[in-house]
Design goal:
5-stranded mixed β-sheet, 10 helices, rod-shaped, alpha/beta
Length: 280
C-alpha cells in the first residue's frame, strides 16, 4: 500500500514540481548557461515521477530494488551533466533542492507532529543518499573525462613526423615525467614500425629537465629501436640536462647525440646515403 508520503506527492505532484522548478532558478541549483530550462524540467518530471512510484509500494528504504529506477535516472543525469561542465556539487544540489521543496509541502500539509517527524526522517534519509549517489557518479564521470583529455593531450604533444623517407622525428616539449616518458617511447616505437623508419630522431630541445628514471627510459627506448634495426639519435640535449645526466651517472653508452635537430637531420640524411645540395 502507498505510504502517506507517496500519497502527498501524488495528490500535489504538479504543485511540488512547480515549486521545485522555482527553487532551482532562485537558488541557481544548476547553472542555466550549462543546462537549459527544458532539460531541467524534463529531468525534474522524471525524478518526481520515479520517487512517487518507488514510495507507492510503501518502500522507504533507499537500498531497496524499487529505487533502482531513480538511481538510474540520477546516474544518467550525473554523467550527462558532467559532460556539459556541471560540477558534482551543483548536480547534488539539484537533488537536494527537491528535498527542500518537499519539506515545505510536508510542513504545510501534515498537521500531526509525530507523523511529520517520521516523514521528514524518511525523506531526509532517502534524498541525502540520492544526493551522495549522484555526487559519486558525477565525480566518476569527471575523472573519466579528465583521464581521456589527458590521454588526448599526450597524444597531441607527442607527434611523430616523417621528415624524410625512412627518417622520423619526435619533438618533445615540456616536462618529462616517468608516465609521459613511457607514453612517448611507446608512440615512437609504434611509429618506427608503421613507417618502417631507418633513423629516428628524438629531439628534447624543449625539455627543461629530466630525472634518472626518465633518462633510463630514453636509453631503453634507444636500445629497443636498435633491436628493431633502427638507429635512434638524440638531439637538443641542453647544458642543464647534460650536467644532470653526468651528476646522476646516466651512461648514454654508444647512443648517438647531436647538439641540434638540424645537425641530427643532416647526419640522418647522410647515414641513408643522401646528399642535400643548394641549387644555383
Amino acid at each position: 500500500m502507498p505510504n502517506s508520503l507517496a500519497t502527498l506527492i501524488r495528490d500535489n505532484e504538479q504543485t511540488l514540481l512547480d515549486n521545485w522548478l522555482t527553487v532551482q532558478v532562485k537558488d541557481e541549483a544548476v547553472r542555466s548557461d550549462l543546462v537549459g530550462a527544458s532539460e531541467r524540467r524534463q529531468r525534474s518530471v522524471l525524478f518526481v515521477d520515479g520517487v512517487r512510484r518507488a514510495l507507492e509500494g510503501g518502500l522507504t528504504d533507499y537500498e531497496d530494488d524499487a529505487w533502482d529506477d531513480v538511481r538510474a535516472l540520477t546516474s544518467d543525469m550525473g554523467r550527462a551533466w558532467s559532460r556539459l561542465g556541471v560540477t558534482p556539487v551543483d548536480t547534488a544540489m539539484f537533488v537536494l533542492s527537491f528535498k527542500q521543496s518537499l519539506f515545505d509541502l510536508m510542513v504545510k500539509l501534515i498537521s500531526a507532529r509525530d507523523q511529520l517527524a517520521e516523514e521528514l526522517r524518511v525523506a531526509t534519509s532517502v534524498f541525502d543518499q540520492l544526493g551522495l549517489h549522484v555526487t559519486a557518479v558525477s565525480l566518476d564521470e569527471r575523472d573519466e573525462i579528465i583521464t581521456r583529455q589527458r590521454e588526448e593531450v599526450m597524444e597531441l604533444s607527442t607527434p611523430v613526423v616523417e621528415v624524410w623517407a625512412g627518417i622520423v622525428v619526435l619533438p618533445i616539449i615540456g616536462v618529462l615525467d616517468s608516465s609521459r616518458t613511457q607514453q612517448v617511447m611507446e608512440t615512437l616505437l609504434q611509429e618506427i614500425v608503421r613507417r618502417e623508419a631507418e633513423v629516428a630522431i628524438l629531439d628534447i630541445t624543449g625539455v627543461p629537465a629530466v630525472d634518472s628514471v626518465t633518462a633510463q627510459h630514453i636509453v631503453k627506448t634507444v636500445a629497443a629501436a636498435r633491436l628493431m634495426g633502427t638507429t635512434c639519435v638524440i638531439s637538443g640535449i641542453r647544458p642543464q640536462i647534460a650536467q644532470t645526466m653526468v651528476t646522476l651517472g646516466v651512461d648514454l653508452g654508444d647512443v648517438e647525440t647531436q647538439s641540434s635537430l638540424r645537425s641530427a637531420l643532416s647526419a640522418a640524411i647522410e647515414r641513408l646515403g643522401y646528399r642535400v645540395t643548394k641549387s644555383g
